UniProtKB/TrEMBL annotation:
Domain Glycoside hydrolase family 2 catalytic, chain residue ranges per copy: 305-450
SUPFAM superfamilies per record: (Trans)glycosidases, beta-Galactosidase/glucuronidase domain, Galactose-binding domain-like, Invasin/intimin cell-adhesion fragments
Family in the record: Belongs to the glycosyl hydrolase 2 family.
MF GO annotations: hydrolase activity
Record-annotated Glycoside hydrolase family 2 immunoglobulin-like beta-sandwich domain positions: 189-298
Glycoside hydrolase family domain boundaries: 673-774
Entry superkingdom: Bacteria
Protein's name according to its UniProt entry: Glycoside hydrolase family 2 protein
Key words, A-Z: Glycosidase, Hydrolase
Domain (Glycosyl hydrolases family 2 sugar binding): residue spans on this chain: 90-181
Amino acid sequence: MFASMQIARAGTPERLSLDPGWLFLQGDVPLPSIKGQGASYMTTKAGEAPGPAGADYDDSTWRHVDLPHDWAVEGPFDPDQNRAQGYRPRGIGWYRRYLTLPVTDRGRNIELQLDGIATHSTVWVNGIVVNRNWSGYNGRNIDITPYLRYGKEVNTIAVRVDAEVMEGWWYEGAGMYRHTWLVKRDAVHIATDGIHANPVQKNGRWTLPVTVQVDSSAAAARDATLDVILVAPDGRAVARATAPVHVDALHSASARLDLAVRNPQPWTLDKPALYRVHAVLRDAKGEIDSAETHTGFRTFRFDADRGFFLNGQPTKLQGVAIHQDHAGVGVAVPDSIWEYRMRQLKSMGVNAIRFAHNAPAAEVMDLADRLGILVMDENRNFNTSPDYMQQLTWLVRRDRNRPSVVLWSIFNEEPLQGTEVGYEMARRMVAAIRELDPTRPVTAAMHGGLFSDKGAVQALDVAGINYQVWEYEHFHKTYPDKPVFSSEDTSAFMSRGAYKTDVAKHVVASYDDDAADWGQTQRGSWKHITDHPFMAGGFAWTGLDYRGEPTPHEWPSASSFFGIMDLCAFPKNAYWFRQALWIKDKPVVKLMPHWNWPGQEGRPVKVRVATNAPHVRLLLNGAVVGEQDVAPFDMATFDVPYAPGRLEVVASRNGKEVGRDAVETSGAPARVVLTPDRSALLGDGADAVPVTVSVVDAQGRPVADANLHVRFDTDGAGRIIGVGNGDPNSHEPDKASERSLYNGLAQVIVQGRRGAHGKLVLRARADGLQPAEVLLAVRDAGALAVVPEAQPIVRPGTWRSSPPQSERPDPNVALADNDMNSWAWGDPPLGMAPGAKRWRAFRVSFPLRADHNDGRAHVVLREIAGKAEVWLDGVKLGDKTSFAPGPLVLPVPHGPGWRTLTVLVEAEPGKPSGLLGDVLIERGTP
Ligand code: GAL
C-alpha cells in the first residue's frame, strides 16, 4: 500500500507507484498492412513502433483507468464464451501511460516493474519494444534507462495485452491486474530481488548468509562499500557486516557477507517474527543506494514417516488451494482485500496456502510472511525452455528469503509426469531451483505416474498427491524414504446458506455431503490425511470460490462451488467443519441450518453441528430435542421436527459446557444493515474495505434466507469499486451500485479516493425496508510516492533535412519512397554550416492527435536562426522574415490524421543558422 512507502530524499532510491493515470482501449488496433518500401523501412527502426505502440499515437478517446485493472470482470456473461474462464469475454486490450522525468534523474538507473499482466503482453517505451512476456503470473523488471527523455519531454509507455490466450482452466482475468512501479536508483545499485538472505541453522546456531547483487548502468567502473544490517522486529540492529564491491560499467557484481545471529526470535505460525535485512551501498561521496528485504528464523523438515515439522514441532499442513479472483474486482484484487481474504483463512485454522497454480503477487506473499501462513509456492508452466525457466527463476529469486515458503512446486497435474520426458524436465527445474535456493524441497502436484520407473517423482524431494487417497499407503510403501503430502484434495460442493439441493436450480445443500467424483467431503478428506501419520498434511480445493471452471454445474453457473468460502470470502458451512477439524485450542460450535422453514411445521429438518467438542445437546424453544456424542469426523446430525422459534446447541466436554450456538426464526426483513470490515481506510486510491450487506427483521434478527435487491450510493472521499454476493449462478454485474442479497448477504467494496480525506458515506436502500448508512473515516495518506500523470505532447519526430542548396528549394518536392539517403535524418536542433549554399529544407510527417487538430492548435518553432517559410501539407502557413534567431508560432488548420510539415530556412550569410529549437504542436492559444 502507498502508506508504507516513503518519499525519498535526494540521492536515495525511489520506488514510485505507476498505478494511477493509464489510458485504456479494449480491443485491438488493426495496423494497416504495410506494402511500401519507406513504411517497411521505418517500422523496423528503434523508436518507430507503429500504431498504439508508438510514442505519438492518438489515444485522445481512450478511457482513463487506474491499476490494478481487470477488464474481463467488467464484461457480460455469455454462454458462447469459455466456461473455464467464467463465460466472460477476454480478448485484447491496450494501455498507455505518459510520464516526465526531472533532469536530475539523468544518469540514474530507471527500472519499470510490471507485476502481473494477463496474459501475453508486449511493452514499448517511447516506441521501442522493451519486453515480451508470455505469462500472466510473473512480474518483469525492465531496465528502461537507455530509452528515456528528461525535462519537458514526455515519455510514453505502451502495453498490448493479449488475453485471448490462456494459461489455466480457471478465470484468469484480463489486463494489467497487478501493481506497476517506476524504480529510480543510482547507476550503481542493488539489483531488484538482489538480496539473498535466508537464515541457516547449524548445530543450534543461526547464521544469516547474505549475498547482494549490485548492478551498474554507470559509464565507468566504480567501487562501493556494502553494509548489511539485520533489524529485529523491535527495531534494534542485531547484526551487521560490511564488504567492498567493485562493479565494472554495465556489469553486475556480488558481495557475500555472513551475519551471526544470537537467539533470534523464531518465526512461528502464532508469532511470525520478521527481521528486516537492510543493505546500504556507499561510495566515497556517501550513500548511493539502499534496499531491504525481510526474512524469518524458522526450521522445518519433511519426514517420510512422520510428516511435517515446523521449528521442531510436528505440524500437519492444514492447507487450502486458492485462485486469485474476488467478488466485484475480478483478479484486480486490492492488497487490503487480499489481507481480508487471508485473515478469514487464518481464522478458519489454515496454516498453509497453495497458490494454485501460479505465483501470487508479491504483496500476497508479504501477507503470508506477516500473518504466519506457510506457502507452497507454485510455478505455472512446466517447460524448461529459456523463457519458461526465466519464469521459474524469477519466482525463486523473489521468494527465497520468505519464512512462509516451505515448498517449491514445479507443476500441477502434467500428463508427462510419469514419463522419461517428465523426469528430464523435472530434473532440470529442480537443479535450477537448487542453484538459487538449496534450502527448500521441490515438489509437484501429481495425479498419476507416481509409480513409473522413470518420471518426475524421481526428481522430486517431496511428492504431492492430488485426490487419489487410495495411493497414500501404496506410495509410502513404494517410496519409504520420500516424504509425501496431499497437494490437492476435497473438491466438495456447497452453495452458501442453502440447505436443499436443487439440481435444476444449480443449488447444493451446505451440510458437507457432496463432493466431486474424484474428491471427498471436507470431513472425509481430512480423515484420510490424519489416518496416515506419514502424510505431511493437505491442501483442500479450494479455500475460496473462484470464477470459471463452474463445477458441478455449468451455464448459467459461472463460478465454482468448491470454495470453503464464497467469492466474497463469506464462510460457507465448510468453514466451520474445517474449524472443528483444525482448531484444537478453543471450542468450535456451529449449528446449521438457519431456522426459517415456514410451511414445514412438524416435518423433520436435518440439523448438523460442526464442532470439536465430544458431546452436544440440542434444544428447541428450551426443550431438549436431541443429544449425541460427537463422532470426530462425522460430527453430529439430527432430524428435528420443525417448529419456529429458537434452536440451540450446547456443546460439552466431560459434562461441562464448552460452548453454544443458536439459530432463530426471523420475521420479514425490516431494515438493511451495513457492516464494514474496518471503520477507517486510507485516501490513497488503493486501500479498500469490504462492507457486508445484510437485513434484519423488526426485532433485529438476521434474515438468513433474504434474497432481495439492494441499491447503494456513496458520498465523500471514496467510491464503490465492486459488488458481489457469492451466488455462483448470479449474472448481476460486478461493477454496479446495486446487488441482490444471496441467502442473506451481499458485499460492497469501497475504496478511498487518492489524495482525499474526510468521510466516506455508504448508503443502502431496499424497497419497503429501513435504509442503512455507514460512515468510514478516510485518512490522509500523506504525500504519495506516485509517478505523476503527464499529458501527451506533440513533438513531431524523425525529421529529414535536405542537402544545402544555393536556390530556394521547392517546399513540396517529393522524395522517392525508397530514397533513404539523399536527405539526412535527425531531430532538431538541426544546424546549417555557414557557406555558399544557404538554403535547406527540413521535413517531418506525424500523426496529429484528435485533441490537437481542431483548428485551434499551433505549431511552435522555438528557435529558427535565419529566414524561414513554414508549410503544412503543401500549404504555406507563414514566414519568418528576419535573419535574427527567434521563435515562430503559427496556427495549424483543422485536419485529421497524418500531417507533413516542411520548413525552409535561408541562412544569414556567414552565420550559423537552422532549426535550432524544439518544434511542437500545442493546443489552444499560445
Ligand atoms: C484438479 C485441478 C484443479 C481443479 C480441480 C477441480 O484436478 O488441479 O485445478 O481443476 O481439479 O476439482
